[in-house]
Amino acid sequence: MSSIIQLLPDHVANQIAAGEVVQRPASVVKELLENAVDAKATDIKLIVKDAGKTLIQVVDNGLGMSVTDARLCFERHATSKIRQAEDLFKLHTKGFRGEALASIAAIAHVELKTKQDQEELGTHLIIEGSKFLSQEVAVIPKGTSFSVKNLFFNIPARRNFLKSDTIEFRHIMDEFQRVALAHPNIHFAFYHNGNEVYILPASNSRQRIVTIFSGKTNEKLVPVQEETDILTIDGFVGKPEFSKKSKGEQFFFVNDRYIKSGYLHHALMNAYEGLLKEGAQPSYFLFLNVPPNTIDINIHPTKTEIKFDDEQALYAILRSSIKHSLGQFNVAPVLDFDRDSNLDTPYHYKNTEAPYPTIQVDGNYNPFADEKPTKLHNSEKPKPRKESFNENNHAKQSASWESLYVGLKDAADSISEVGGMQFESEDLTAPLFGDNEIEQQVNKTYQIHRKYIVNPIKSGMVIVDQQRAHQRILYEQFLTNMTVLHASSQQLLFPLHLYFSTNEMALIRELQLALSNTGFVFESTNEDNIVISGIPANVTESEVNAVLEQLLRDLQDGVPENSFSQNDTIAKSMAKSLAVKNGTYLTEVAQENLVNGLFACKEPNVSPFQKPTFITMRVEDLDKKFAL
Ligand code: ADP
Ligand code: MG
């Protein structure tokens, strides 16, 4: 039998390895930045074009490479960082697998310029798809410059799977921030398509965080410091009241390497217990240092996952030191003049609704008595069904159960038409409201469980989900305003200054035009803040922050490319933030407006998120139930 197994040629093996190491342009950025850090550079420049799809260049002033090393560095498993297996347990460098450059050179056009300090001349080398095209002696400043062009040029499938520039750029930002945060003593500069994204002078850790995440970050941070035999912790956690709904500024570094760890995150969240609103996410920037022989970073090619020897001890120490810092911050004098956090109700209690006082219901009272005397006598009066009214309900509801019976007749009698509207509903065979069936001002609506609005009509009743219905109304309003460009805005007496991180500012800039079309008036857009002097007519000043935060959260997957879907995203997001929530008591007028508003919509049947907004129940349906 003939043998069939062959060793793969190097360039094929490299391409396969590249699949693991290089997922997207950001992976190249990470590897090149880390190599520059390992080469002891004090000044690192990152230049990117088209979110890395066209060019990624990293220039450093580090150790540089000899002529031989300049060629060898592209071989697989070629590294200067370890020599033997034991070295893995005393790592002080980012790299050690010797795979990155071989992988990158297999799937891109790479140009390397490098010179060691003591040499007169350096090396200029070009390699494309693992093929060396040229190597020359050249005049080059001390250090190394790698430029990587046309990533995935020879793997069209991978190239086609790259996301939009916005998303790829976000990933690059993430990688850049991680390396820059871990090394505040290095000067970094970052340019995208010729524009400066960051200039970060060498400084300390706090300064670096503040420069990256805007000036306002400083007052939000609480220092954490702990030193034990098995680990030291240094860094900052965000004050609970500045937590956000989105995970964003959350960073763990172990021995200056950014890592992802659900376990450590859990320890941290545990330390915040009772201090956060539900779903809120605190910021953190924590630098853990452990002896290199107590961790294994070899478990994932991108080296963002890590295994600790004594995970449980780490968990406990991390949790208690953060608790301690947060506690210290709470008892320390508060320098925030606006409020005293000692007086704040802990969020635990903020969330629990105050119980309603018990109410003595006057069973004889009928709010509609003077319109139409009730036909039911006290003794015949049906008992309110328990599931219809929970005991916490508002007095008005407890008292007005009777009116369900009274009003029904009224409504049915006086129903007339809403001009030729067609409604679709699953359980309908014929149109529910034929001509002349429903009155524009339906006489009575009832709110039940602070969630549904029940609206009797001639053929039965409509039950409207208040939150979804309001979302639909707002969504169509915003969308119309944005497309016909006639949004009305209310001028603010004092312009609002709102601060955002660099990432968030980038998103806001992209959406500024669309946001203006909803009624926001931007007085200025600055590096880390915006000044708003007008807001949409249906938004209150206190809601602005929540609306924009929700919007930024909804843009996790990037800003849509065309203006139609941008408008759609904004309208959906604002409708979600602003719609009346379940659990809100609505006055009768508000209930009526809601029902009328819903049925005046173009698509009243579903919320902007494609959930049903109302259901109908015909008298026959009810009859059937009673026939059982
Ligand atoms: P690793 O970083 O795991 O060692 P790489 O493929 O990233 O593997 O790099 C291979 C080798 O090339 C490194 O070990 C280092 O000796 C050299 N090298 C890479 N980038 C630089 C740089 N910017 N300056 C100096 N040497 C570098
Ligand atoms: Mg490396």
Share of β-strand residues: 15-25%
What would you report as the Rg, rounded to the nearest angstrom? Answer: 32 Å
What is the average per-residue confidence, as pLDDT, rounded to a whole number? 80
Strand order of the largest sheet: 5-4-3-6-2-1-7-8
Largest sheet: 8 strands, mixed
What number of structural domains do the residues give?
3
Structural class: alpha+beta
Pick out the low-confidence regions. Answer: 331-353, 369-442
CATH-level-2 architecture of the largest domain: 2-Layer Sandwich
Distance between the termini: 78 Å
- Quaternary: single chain
3D structure, described in words:
The protein has 628 residues and is of the alpha+beta class. It has 3 domains: 191 residues, 2-Layer Sandwich (Heat Shock Protein 90); 118 residues, Ribosomal Protein S5, domain 2 (2-Layer Sandwich), CATH 3.30.230; 170 residues, Ribosomal Protein S8, Chain: A, domain 1 (2-Layer Sandwich), CATH 3.30.1370. 33% of the residues lie in helices and 21% in strands. It has 18 helices and 22 strands. The strands form 5 sheets. It has an 8-stranded mixed sheet. α1 packs across α4, α2 packs parallel to α6 and α15 packs across α16. It is elongated, with a radius of gyration of 32 Å. The structure holds adenosine-5'-diphosphate and magnesium ion. The site of adenosine-5'-diphosphate has 22 residues, from α2 and α4.
